[in-house]
Fold this protein.
Amino acid sequence: MPLGPAITDLEQLKNHPAVTRLLDWNAGAVEGVKFDRDEMTIYLERESIREACSLLRDDPVCPFNFLSDVTCVDWYPSEPRFEVVYHLLSIPKKERVRLKVRLDSGSPVVESVTSVWPGANFFEREVFDLFGIRFTGHPYLRRILMPEDWEGHPLRKDYPVEGYR
Amino acid sequence: MAHLAPTPVVEPGQDRTMILNMGPQHPSTHGVLRVILEIDGENVVRLMPDIGFLHTGIEKTCEAKFYQQVVPLTDRIDYLCPLTNNLCYVLAVEKLLGLEIPPKAQWLRVLLNELTRINSHLVWLGTHAMDIGALTVFLYCFREREEVLRMFEMVSGQRMMTSYFRVGGIALEPPLGFFDRVRDFAGYFPEKIDEYENLLTGNPIWLMRTKGVAKMTAGDAIALGATGPTLRASGVDIDLRRDMPYSGYENFKFKVPVSQEGDVYARYICRVQELRESVEIVKQALDGMPEGPIKADAPHVVLPDREKMKTQMESLIYHFKIITEGFAVPAGEVYQAVESPRGEMGYYIVSDGTAKPYRVHMRSACFANLQTLSKMCEGRLLADVVAAIGSIDIVLGEIDR
């Protein structure tokens, strides 16, 4: 199957259940959408991520009730530098959606979604450990994979592959 | 006789609990998991898993490799189901490239993935039973696992680190006699499952150690991110092979075992039933195996056959280019999930249009499943922790990456 171009027009995509729900709630929170390779991505404002997640989880039509994954991408040296990526799955409807929050390098802080899904705990700790993103409201935000006294955040692009020597 | 005087007894205060470290070298933690337990006598008050001992930075390493060089790294994440990881990674890259895979390669991938599931579940069953004290089952399971590993060796030359799948297809045609051997195995394996079940399913000691132990409700399981048999044993009917099919799974008929109890026994039953279903899928894959090529028609991505490379100039050039500078992948991002023996294995790959992945993230099933451990064990006996750890089937290589 040849690849089509990505659709980024909000008008064309507003019938997707997650997009509809979020637009109804707060159109200002949706910064952009992208439909590429059969996958839906919604860019959200930083302040609204926790509420958006809790809204999508409890949606009566298409509940995205399962958090598959939380991770991060570092776009160093461009700004906003970090993209925190949430993959949501709807177990009843078998749908996936990807939420993204962009953070600049000056204040890589975003609200934790552990109050929505306790399972976000380890994922957010991993992102904190490897990227240095801070999640406010996380119950136990400490390094998880690297040793407690490790310097730096290994998955950042300005961190050398061989580590600091 | 001063040395025989009784040692002074500390007056019992408010604080009755003590901290106990289980692992990282404890045999029942299946690798190097450290579990910090706060116990009150024999009762677990709080439990916290401590991980990271096997962290090797595979995600970082991937960013410095060409797309095709990442495949061997994916073996090393979950060393009990290397082919599932291979599959998930190549599917993600193929989705990024928009590649169509020939049917024979898809069916071979399904066949080998189900054999991998059998292999992984056999290791789980053997070690889990051994943790609880049923030593014999381990030997029975490893007897059949050996046969599966020999089949992997036949196709890929490796027993465990197979790296058999390639972006765009499969590395080599399976050798002569491979399908007969698999058919033979699929014929006698269900009897062997009966043998394991004879040893365990009705065994009163096994029932006492597993029934009603480490219970988890469906709501908790979903909230904590559990997937795979750990989730299905709590009554949530989801299996990515059936519900969001990949690699041609929509052509196969199989049942998805679900239990309602959510205890260790339910997880055991789910996995044993899955063994039987896997055999069915293997049989269907053998019967319906299509003819045709095993590699996609994409010369800039797939390495040419050795023979062509030696006789045709163009193939030689493509070979040289793929090996030395890799192949460029159009910019974009995908999240591809497959049903691994442990649950949802997902690869999130971001491409910036070059020959090396910009970011590879592995969503490992055990990493999320491990979070359920506290819920299962708090308020229960210390001995149940061992049963609970075994029942979520963790592989530390996959958790720490």
